[in-house]
UniProtKB/TrEMBL annotation, chain A:
<dbReference type="InterPro" id="IPR016162">
    <property type="entry name" value="Ald_DH_N"/>
</dbReference>
<dbReference type="Pfam" id="PF00171">
    <property type="entry name" value="Aldedh"/>
</dbReference>
<feature type="domain" description="Aldehyde dehydrogenase">
    <location>
        <begin position="24"/>
        <end position="254"/>
    </location>
</feature>
<dbReference type="InterPro" id="IPR015590">
    <property type="entry name" value="Aldehyde_DH_dom"/>
</dbReference>
<dbReference type="GO" id="GO:0016491">
    <property type="term" value="F:oxidoreductase activity"/>
</dbReference>
<keyword id="KW-0560">Oxidoreductase</keyword>
<dbReference type="InterPro" id="IPR016161">
    <property type="entry name" value="Ald_DH/histidinol_DH"/>
</dbReference>
<protein>
    <submittedName>
        <fullName>Acyl-CoA reductase-like NAD-dependent aldehyde dehydrogenase</fullName>
    </submittedName>
</protein>
Length: 295, 319
């Protein structure tokens, strides 16, 4: 019999492309569905939230300015990396959600497929929600979707991986950067996602992942003046109400929690359009005559 | 031996010749580099919170020399900077004004106009900033132009080449000449460009040299080289001004410049000042920060303390 010691993994946050511990130094015990200890996860403080917002803001210019095609390639690369770690995620999801191995595998496969699906949307969403507007004058008038900015995402509490992917991928596909608060009870798949993102050409800071008490981390994020939008998917009714009031202060876009029975159902484009703004420009040239430009 | 006039201070005889000056500067105790850096680092770990933090932030804002030293400076940019120096946070009138604006000599008149009547000083770099490589006549003309345009403070650079070559008297005489050109109206800050002096021993020697020559302020750097103000070199200069006052009774100010960008950094420097030179220096007459982006961070931290919400770069001016 082997007497090799287990090498336990220290789960860490993912902020600005690095893996820091919580600034507070705190951790909390994460257990599986039968209350058996799995690991210690960092218990983030409001300062971790602040640092994550700074990292996300710093990354926003580059990520939103990257071509949609390039973003699509990078997101597809993320899916490739997820595929390579499939077994790890199956184990983590099975432990976190108390699923059988085959059920957990279904969840992971759906999550990877979801990521590929959103990767495809990066260079198509503009054609669907933007376009040329017919106007009563000899001008071009064009609308194009623009990313909102830094989006705070409270990941769903129950679906620790498929739910997480379903709320994070649409936010970054359109060029936003995200500060993600992982599921409070089962943060391990989310923290492992950081390791995949770090190795898939996704610029540091585009996605920042925090674990800890959702209410504790979400409050400073909702009140933060430099966060442009917040997705309340992981907040219960009372918390969502409180956060929405705090978020109103700097007119954040708020996506209220919506009941989701089955995260594997086709999501549609709603989660992408929730964090897009429409820019409309009048093209200040008249119609071109037969001889070419009027200038 | 009878003397015709009492010495200006106890150290007046060391500047009598190149030899005595060299003997004095090389006789200064050597710097324990490891100890200095450890001391600076350990003072940087002090926790400054709540009311103490609010006090420190306001004090730091009042100590900022808001600086723009770019080839691309326009009168419009200098006016905008002046307006910001006078009223750093237009949404909160309790925010203190900064100490000064710091510009190139040709922008002094514009800056003077922008801060007129506010108590904010106008500082001008001079003496062929930042390299200091120009004939002495040109350097002095540079200084006189800035003073006559209305500069309250002159930031001169020393001739690092002469200093590193051991030509201390030349550096000394240049500072004395510039001090004279400043007249009685302008205070003189002497920039050593610590990043180019190579060793802590040299920084200590330069500090004493500057103070002996009559500097009102000693300043770390121009902000134009790779290494600017660090906690360690500022701590060393604070020790020098403390010792200089103990020996001569003359108080000299300190200005770290370049690379101080966050409130946290600024507060660490204030801790150094308080623990090394003492409370007498916790005033913008005796301690300054040469900075530009630092002010925005101080304002964001100030807003956070006032409202409890984290602020962002959308709520301060872009400059």
């Amino acid at each position: 019999m082997s007497d090799r010691l287990n090498v336990l993994k220290t789960y860490k946050l993912y902020v600005g492309g690095k893996f820091p511990r919580s600034e507070s130094g705190r951790v909390y015990e994460v257990t599986d569905s039968k209350n058996r200890w799995l690991a210690n996860a960092p218990l983030s403080s409001r300062k971790d939230a602040r640092d994550a917002v700074v990292a996300a803001r710093k990354a926003f210019g580059g990520w939103s300015g990257a071509t949609a095609y390039n973003r699509g390639q990078i997101l597809y690369r993320v899916a490739e990396m997820l595929e390579g770690r499939r077994d790890q995620y199956v184990r983590e999801v099975a432990e976190a959600e108390g699923l059988s191995k085959s059920k957990a595998a279904e969840q992971v496969d759906a999550a990877i497929d979801r990521w590929v699906w959103y990767a495809g949307w990066t260079d198509k969403i503009a054609q669907v929600v933007g376009g040329g507007n017919p106007v009563a004058g000899p001008y071009f008038n064009l609308s194009s979707p623009e990313p909102t900015g830094v989006v705070a995402v409270l990941a769903p509490q129950e679906s620790s991986f498929l739910g997480l992917v379903s709320v994070v991928a649409p936010v970054i596909a359109t060029g936003n950067t995200a500060v993600v608060v992982a599921s409070e009870e089962s943060p391990l798949p989310a923290l492992s996602l950081g390791e995949v993102l770090a190795t898939s050409d996704l610029p540091g800071g585009v996605v920042n992942i925090l674990s800890g008490r959702t209410a504790e981390i979400a409050a400073p994020l909702a009140a933060h003046q430099d966060v442009n939008a917040i997705d309340l998917a992981g907040a219960d009714e009372a918390l969502a109400r409180e956060l929405e009031i705090a978020a109103a202060d700097n007119l954040k876009r708020v996506l209220r929690p919506q009941p989701v029975d089955d995260w594997s159902a086709t999501p549609g484009t709603d989660r992408m359009t929730a964090f897009l703004e429409t820019k409309t420009v009048w093209h200040p040239t008249g119609s071109l005559g037969a001889s070419g430009s009027a200038y | 031996m009878p003397t015709t006039a009492p010495p200006a201070h106890a150290l007046s005889d060391v500047t009598a010749s190149d030899g005595t000056l060299r003997r004095f500067l090389h006789g200064l105790p050597g710097v324990d580099a490891v100890g200095l850096e450890a001391r600076a680092a350990s003072l940087g770990t002090r926790s400054i919170k709540t009311t103490a933090k609010a006090y420190a932030i306001d004090l730091a804002i009042s100590m900022v020399d808001l600086t723009t030293l770019e080839g691309a400076d326009t009168p419009g940019k200098v006016r905008a900077l002046g307006a910001k120096a006078v009223r750093p946070d237009p949404t909160d009138r309790t925010a203190p004004a900064t100490a000064a604006v710091c510009v190139y000599p040709d922008m002094v008149a514009t800056a003077r106009e922008a801060v007129a009547g506010s108590g904010v000083k106008v500082a001008s770099v001079a003496t062929a900033f930042p390299a200091g490589r120009a004939p002495i006549a040109v350097k002095l003309a540079d200084v006189r132009e800035a003073v006559s345009a209305g500069a309250d403070e002159i930031d001169m650079v020393i001739d690092r080449g002469a200093f590193l070559a051991g030509n201390y008297l030349k550096v000394y005489e240049e500072i004395v000449a510039v001090k004279e050109a400043c007249g009685t109206s302008a205070r003189l800050k002497v920039i050593f460009e610590t990043g180019e002096l190579s060793t802590y021993d040299n920084i200590r020697r330069a500090s004493w040299l500057g103070m002996l020559a009559g500097a009102d302020f000693i300043k770390t750097s121009t902000g134009k080289v790779a290494v600017n103000a660090t906690p360690a070199n500022t701590l060393l200069m604070l020790e020098a001004v403390r010792d200089f006052r103990a020996q001569t009774g003359v108080q000299v100010g300190v200005k770290p410049a370049g690379g101080i960008r966050t409130s946290k950094d600024a507060i660490k420097f204030l801790v150094l000042v308080n623990e090394t030179a003492g409370e007498d220096w916790l005033d913008n007459h005796w301690f300054r920060f040469g900075a530009s982006s630092l002010l925005n961070d101080l304002l964001m931290q100030r807003q956070k303390l006032a409202t409890g919400r984290y602020s962002g770069p959308d709520y301060v001016t872009v400059d």
